[in-house]
Write a structure and sequence with these properties.
The complex is a heterodimer of chains A (659) and B (154).
Chain A: H1 2-30, H2 33-62, H3 69-74, H4 81-86, H5 92-113, H6 119-143, H7 167-196, H8 201-232, H9 243-268, H10 272-294, H11 308-332, H12 347-379, E1 382-385, H13 387-404, H14 407-410, H15 418-424, H16 426-443, H17 449-472, H18 479-488, H19 491-516, E2 518-524, E3 529-532, E4 535-546, E5 551-561, E6 564-569, E7 572-576, E8 581-585, E9 587-591, E10 594-603, E11 609-616, H20 620-637
Antiparallel strand pairs in A: 2-11, 3-4, 4-5, 5-6, 5-7, 7-8, 9-10, 10-11
Chain B: H1 3-32, E1 33-37, H2 39-45, E2 52-59, E3 65-66, E4 71-77, E5 82-88, E6 100-107, E7 113-120, H3 129-137, E8 141-142, E9 147-148
Parallel strand pairs in B: 1-2, 5-7
Antiparallel strand pairs in B: 2-4, 2-6, 3-4, 4-5, 6-7, 8-9
Classes of the chains: A alpha+beta (659), B alpha+beta (154).
């Protein structure tokens, strides 16, 4: 009964979506306020229905109803409750339902908090949002119905892929989807602006909070995915330039560019056409990401099933929205009026620089990701493009971007003074140079590039601090004035500084863990001791432990630093009988911001066991930086002028019924 | 500065950055890509020793030999041809005889692949696409079953 209810709710949502796709546009054309208002109600109702549908699927999973095919394929009655819950989106069908849930959630947000939008714009935005929703409802209902029943209910499920049975997975996909799907709002706003043929600074102010929210979610989502890969895949890497990872990085790069160009548009009414184009491109890249991951074009842990029909369907959605969006852009963009003038050396100029480099970096990732697919389709030869390619292309572009980063916020609008800014950044240059020298002195010249990378990271961090010091007048003005100025400073200025600081922190972590990490891959016998980077690990032996749906071999290692015992590390191997597979649970031990990382390999016949031991200095900075970036986004989001539900005049109170 | 000049600067710098990016991409593509081959391709194409290649197929039954210091030798087969592979390190959890595997490394004289990366499948339902294609080529793949003909399941 419950699965049928869920299915039915989704069909109803589709029907509402179809109405919402057309009615508001007709309403906007004929100036029919009632038809336009209809969109808000249908958007809210769509969310209620999809939420109902999603809850129905959750109920099937939680109660282990194996008569439902996806539950049978991806769940197990002995699995802990939390994983029964997360396996809802640990498969293709369920994750697409999560996708539309978030899509309808954002639609409902616009309906609920978009009271300050002009009526026609709101109607158009909700209609476009509904086009996307309809496409994905159809996709789910026609090719990936999660509620499909089996004629005979099996007694036991086939279990969730063991490496997905992890807390990181509980958080990673919803966050990533919040990001991907959040950009659909920017897309809808862009298409609505093109339909209306009118766009102004206020438009940018409305779009920015949505973009910012999506960007924050995507930033943390990518970081979570990277951390998950780091500790579950068992070989200590955090980023593999895997096509699936690139699929999430591309919208992030384009979205970051969009955030910055929207600032120019809001403040200076310039770069309008470009901002619209970026909004379309960002969501297009999210769709391409979905296509790459969901269609089975690529094989990875994310491609749950290779069903050609699905790939073709998503490709259709892709062509429709990207092609349609870009065609509309080509047709209507010339109507949009050009905005304010600015000199190349100015805040606007620096943001253009930022956009240029971010989009070009995004392009290189795009080429590296899709070139192998194109080559295989055209010539049949298969190649793999890996880390070296991206280090050579993406790397230099990002270094240029990082170098220019502290200049942007310090330049004045319209016409800036490059020399003056360089003078104000003297402290940052000095700190960077000292960091280079210090790194060479401590670590030696084994890697020439890495100390300069460290210098660059410190320079960007100090640049962010200089920006705040300049703005608040710290060191120049009396403390009381500084305090007032600090509180008076727009939150978005704080956000900028914090986010820029964050990316430098991540950079520091990447360089440090990548360059000065050490590793040891050996076979050890019980009683033997491994030594790495000043740590001694003694192998005490292996014990068997039973988990809810697996058996684990847990190896115990006592860790000593300079002879003092500092703890025990227990990496383990889990064997899942339902799928006849095993997973590797690496043991992590935090040492400051660095980590000791220990994972198990095969047991040999002589009683020894193969292990990988890594010491990764400052590795936690990589993810800490992402959190700091998100914090910057949150600060910026809390800026008064961007607040989603801006206060409305209280004229309506007269109309309220007397109680 | 007039609107026209401003636009010129903008377009000029965009083209400049794009040109740099294209240069970087071409340079990287010529130096850092790796071609994928099936064991039969390796035999037939006469690939020069020292080339980096990626091969995919099944770990041949009875071919795995483990040595000291985590050294391992095995043969990758697509049913028609076999390629010997040597590797030092920890092979993936799901590395087993008769199972799909992808190895990347330098081809040595004598046709041995000195692998620095060995990848296996993630779970029992997933087979690397490259392996599937290699097996399809040699006719050892049954489409309807989604399984390897004659391959044993552990």
């Amino acid at each position: 009964m419950i699965p049928e209810l869920g299915h039915y709710a989704l069909v109803l949502a589709l029907a509402l979506g179809l109405i919402q796709s057309v009615a508001p546009i007709v309403g906007a054309k004929t100036r029919d306020a009632a038809l336009m208002r209809l969109a808000s109600s249908t958007a809210l109702m769509q969310f209620v229905l999809v939420a109902l549908s999603f809850s129905a699927l959750v109920a099937c999973y939680v109660t282990s109803d194996f008569s439902v095919n996806t539950v049978f394929e991806n769940s197990h009655s002995m699995m802990p409750l939390i994983y029964k819950f997360t396996s809802v989106w640990g498969n293709h069908e369920g994750s697409m339902l999560l996708w539309v849930l978030i899509l309808s959630l954002f639609g409902a947000f616009v309906a609920a908090f978009g009271a300050n939008l002009p009526a026609t714009l709101k109607a158009h935005v909700l209609a476009v949002q509904s086009w996307i929703a309809v496409a994905f409802y159809l996709f789910i209902l026609l090719t990936s119905n999660p509620f499909l029943r089996l004629a005979q209910a099996p007694i036991e499920g086939r279990d969730l892929n063991p490496i997905l049975q992890d807390l990181g997975l509980a958080i990673h996909p919803p966050l990533l989807y919040l990001g991907y799907v959040g950009f659909s709002i920017s897309f809808s706003f862009a298409i609505a602006a093109l339909i209306e043929g009118r766009i102004d600074a206020a438009w940018a102010r409305w779009v920015r909070p949505w973009t910012l929210m999506a960007w924050m979610a995507l930033t943390v989502g990518i970081a979570m995915g990277s951390y998950w890969a780091y500790y579950t895949l068992g070989w200590g890497g955090f980023w593999f330039w895997d096509p699936v990872e690139n699929a999430s990085l591309m919208p992030w790069l384009a979205g970051t560019a969009l955030l910055h160009s929207a600032v120019v548009m809001e403040k200076r009414n310039a770069l309008k056409v470009w901002t619209i184009l970026l909004a379309i491109l960002t969501f297009s890249l999210s769709l391409i990401g979905t296509f790459l991951v969901r269609s089975g074009v690529l094989t990875s842990v994310h491609s749950f099933a290779n069903d050609p029909a699905r790939g073709v369907f998503i490709l259709g959605i892709l062509v429709l929205f990207i092609g349609g969006g870009l065609s509309l852009f080509a047709w209507r963009a010339s109507i949009l009026k050009q905005g304010g003038l600015f000199a190349p050396i100015s805040r606007e100029g620096s943001l253009v620089f930022n956009n240029l480099f971010l989009t070009t970096a995004c392009l290189t990732v795009f080429v590296g990701t899709l070139y192998p697919l194109a080559l295989e389709a055209l010539t049949g030869s298969k190649i793999s493009v890996g880390g070296p390619f991206f280090n050579l292309t993406f790397g230099p572009l990002f270094v240029a971007l990082m170098f220019a980063m502290p200049f942007g916020p310090l330049l004045a609008w319209k016409r800036g003074d490059l020399l003056g800014v360089a003078q104000r950044l003297m402290t940052a240059f000095a700190v960077g140079l000292v960091a280079v020298a210090a790194t060479f002195a401590i670590k030696g010249g084994a890697s020439v590039l890495a100390p300069f990378g460290v210098g660059l990271a410190f320079y960007v961090m100090m640049g962010a601090i200089v920006d705040l010091v300049e703005r608040t007048g710290l060191m120049r003005l009396p403390m009381a004035t500084v305090r007032t100025r600090a509180f008076g400073l727009p939150r978005s200025a704080w956000g900028t500084a914090v986010a820029h600081f964050g990316i430098a922190v991540s950079m520091l972590g990447i360089i440090s863990a990548g360059t000065w990490g050490s590793e040891l891959i050996v076979a050890v016998n019980p009683g033997q001791t491994l030594s790495l980077s000043g740590y001694d690990l003694t192998f005490d032996g292996v014990v068997e432990q039973a988990g809810p749906n697996y058996n684990a071999q847990v190896a115990k290692f006592t860790v000593r630093e300079r002879g003092v015992t500092i703890g025990v590390m227990e990496p383990s191997k889990r064997n899942f009988s339902a799928r006849a597979t095993s997973t590797n649970e690496a043991a992590l031990m935090a040492r400051g911001a660095g980590q000791l990382y220990l994972s198990l390999g095969d047991a040999n016949s002589d009683g020894s066991i193969a292990v990988r031991l890594y010491y990764k200095p400052l590795v936690m900075f990589i993810w800490l930086g992402a959190l700091i970036m998100m914090l910057g986004g949150a600060l910026s989001l809390s800026d008064r002028r961007l607040r989603v539900g801006a206060p409305k005049p209280a004229a309506k109170s007269v109309l309220q019924p007397a109680e | 500065m007039t609107r026209k000049q401003r636009r010129l600067v903008l377009i000029g710098s965009s083209i400049g950055v794009l040109a740099i990016a294209i240069g970087l991409v071409l340079n990287a593509l010529s130096g850092s890509i790796v071609f994928f081959n099936s064991p039969t391709d390796i035999k037939e194409k006469q690939i020069a020793a020292g080339t980096r290649v990626r091969i995919g197929g099944l770990v041949k039954d009875g071919s795995v030999q483990r040595g000291d210091n985590l050294r391992i030798r095995f043969e990758v087969t697509d049913g028609k041809s076999d390629v010997p592979v040597k590797f030092q390190g920890i092979v993936p959890d799901l590395f087993r005889e008769g199972q799909g595997v992808v190895a990347e490394g330098k081809l040595e004289p004598g046709g041995i692949l000195d692998a620095d990366t060995v990848l296996a499948k993630h779970d029992e339902r997933y087979m690397p696409k490259e392996v599937v294609d290699a097996l399809k080529k040699s006719g050892r793949w049954e489409e309807s079953e989604g399984k390897v003909a004659g391959g044993k399941t552990p």
